[in-house]
Each structure stands twice: as C-alpha cells, then as structure tokens.
Amino acid sequence: MSIEDPADPRVDDYVALTDVALRRRREPADGLFIAEGERVIDRALRAGYRPRSVLVSPARLTAVPPDLPAGVPIYVAGPEVLAAITGFEVHRGALASMCRRPPLPAADLLAAARRLLVCEDIVSHTNLGAIFRSAAGLGMDAVLLSPRCADPLYRRCVRVSMGEVFAVPYARLDPWPDALRQLRDAGFGLLALTPAADAEDLGTFAAHVGGLARVALLLGSEGPGLSAVAQAAASARVRIPMAHGVDSLNVAATAAIACYLLGRR
Q: Model pTM?
C-alpha cells in the first residue's frame, strides 16, 4: 500500500521517531515498539513478537521478511515521505511496528537465573543496548532494571543491541533499591561495580567466584555511578583496575568485561 501523505493515519505508529520524550510516553502506553532494519525485524519475528505493520522505501521492499504473517499491512513510502513521517532519513529503509508483551515479573527471572546484570538508572539507550548485547553474547541469563532505566525496546536501544534485547529476558525491580533484597533472599551474591580504590580487583574476585552459585552484577549510570545505597546492599564491591591515570570505563565497556569474567559460556 502506497503512502503519499506523511499525515496518513495508517502510519501513525511511525510518527516522530526522534522525539524521545514522546516515544517514551507513547510506545509503552500503546503496547508497541519499533524495529529498524531487516536484521532487527527478522530477530523480533523469530523471537515471537507480533508485527502490527511494516513501513519501507520502494528500494527496500526485498527487506520485508518473506515469513511475515498474513494480513500484516506493508506500507511503501518514498525517502522524502519517510523522513517527514519519522523525523529522520531512514537509511536502513525498513521499519516495523511490533506488539509488546506483558512485562515479566522479576521473581520469574530470579527463579531460573544464575548470572544476572542489574542496572541502576542507566538512561542512555546506547549504553543499555550495548549492555544487552554483552549480556547475550557473554553468558548472562537475564537483566534487571531499576525503575528509572531506559526502555530496552526503544528503537535506538534495540538497534545498538542488534536485536539481542529480544534474546535476554528482563524485568523491572521496584521499589528501588529495596527490591535488591529479593536477590539476596534468592541466594544471589551481589557484586557492586565501582572505580573506588578500596574495592576488590574484579579479575581476582572472578578467579574465586566458583563458590558463588548465583551472582548478580550491579552497574550504575554514566557519571554518578552506582549509588551509595545500592553499593551498601551488595555482598562485595569490585573494580576494574585502570592504567595511565584513567579513572574508569564507560558503563557498557565495564559491563562487557564483567560479563566476560563472570558469565556462563
């Protein structure tokens, strides 16, 4: 179906994709998220997410998955109309509006997981997407998020993760930080990642972590880092030693190293 008018209500799901505040309010409320690019759309479908519609440029019609369920509308719009609808040049040429699933209870993840990442107030979609990619590739079972963390299904987060947000189960921990007690009650050792000089060397700690059957890594936001109350709830405080006077790594890089040392492979 051809779309000539950016105001066509049939493509309302795709309006103003660069307006972060608007999309953060609208997408969860409407039960949708946007998958961008052929690979991400395919991963969302393979993960069992149900598509609402697909929006593509004429040159990218071949990017529409051949196994798209019957009855899902495919809208075709030229580059200028696509840009007017979405607010940016859609270089990947293909977008899909997908249905969200009901949120998972944190208790369900705690029952099955042995290795967890716990994110406190990570509001950068880029960092959160990279964290999910590391969690998937380096053997973490699930990700738990404080209430203020970014939405893992926001378009940029999904794209940076290369669709791995669909592979790693996640849930919100609320109230924060009191809900961390649930992890301790479930038998998890809580490791707070911090650049503080008095924290234990993560590499040394990881060499002896075999005694901990269940481990949760706590990560704080870029800048402030992990809060004092979250650190106080941890079983141990660990750090990645730095060289050349560098004080710390980006939180996504920190997560990758920690997952490599402590994940299940």
A: 0.93
